[in-house]
Amino acid sequence: MKWVGAGLTVQMNASAALRRVGLCDEVAQAGACPTDSAILKPSGSALTRLPVTRIQEELGLPLVCIHRARLQSVLLAHAGEENVRMGLTVTAFHDDGQTVTVRLSDGSSVTGDALVGADGLRSVVRGALLGDAPLRYSGYTSWRGVCSDVPSATPGLVSETWGPGARFGVVPIGFGQTYWFATQNAPAGGQDAPGETRARLQSLFGGWHAPIADLIAATEEANIIRTDIHDRPPASRWSRGRVTLLGDAAHPMTPNMGQGGCQAIEDAVVLAELLAAEGPVDAALAAYEQRRLERANSFVTRSWSLGRVAQWESSAGRFIRNALFQLVPRGLAARQVRALVRDAE
């Protein structure tokens, strides 16, 4: 498996799901557990803070910031590499009511008891199952990178800084590395001129608080990933017969709540538990959809709405937004995290 991608956050609700399959501690050891989380202004002053350590201790669950490839390595080791075929895509499938046969891009086929389409935002399985409309563009693009830790960063702090129509996130992921991301309102389909991505990011964010400029400077140009942010409106169903969807194939969402990967983990654990129980496969898939659809779709909607607010450009809108955030009681965010975990269990 190639070492690709950037970072992500395994939030406490996903850690609760991983604990049910015995992987919570191993995933935590492959990443870093922050002590604090904050939303900041470009000056560095705080709009809101979350005492992560206290909540982790109270719930007995870690919040893990991790390189995507390290998380994949842990999962692959337990799935068994011999059970995974790389470099292939699904081109078609057929459900005959007893088995599902999948045609792959190399011309081969595989037959099994069920098909779980976990093939991402542009899922072939979803397209065949639901006949979806085009993706929904959020109105903003993103850049992501991973670099070595810089001295100007605050140890243990995960932060997201909100400016006019732009944001910058800083996420320490352990092993001497920091994952960062940035967003800016922009038309879809834009590209940076070759060799000019860092210069553009410095022009956008270099005047913001430390360690932002240092992180951009510490990242190799070739290691910066630009991606327009899309999702899909919530679907009313994911399954038909012996075929279902999981993760971004089922409920692609914007990254504003950090729940895309977390909801995929919840999906996988619930689906595995239901398939392991006695009973017909199609009944297990129907039960999986019933348990998961409403919760996952709620994150699609909430994440979309949060992104709209976070990307406001107008001075008046940002002033009101920031004032409201600063008035939120310090304990409210902690209560929301507790509810997030409770609803996942």
TrEMBL record:
Names of required cofactors:
FAD
Specify the superkingdom. Bacteria
Q: Does the keyword Iron apply?
A: no
Q: Carries keyword Nucleus?
A: no
User: Known InterPro entries for this protein?
Assistant: FAD-bd, FAD/NAD-bd_sf
Gene Ontology molecular function: any one: oxidoreductase activity
Keyword tags: FAD, Flavoprotein, Oxidoreductase
Coiled-coil ranges (or none):
none
Which Pfam families does the UniProt record give?
Answer: FAD_binding_3 (PF01494)
Q: Residue limits of the FAD-binding domain?
A: 18-302
Which protein is depicted?
A: 2-polyprenyl-6-methoxyphenol hydroxylase
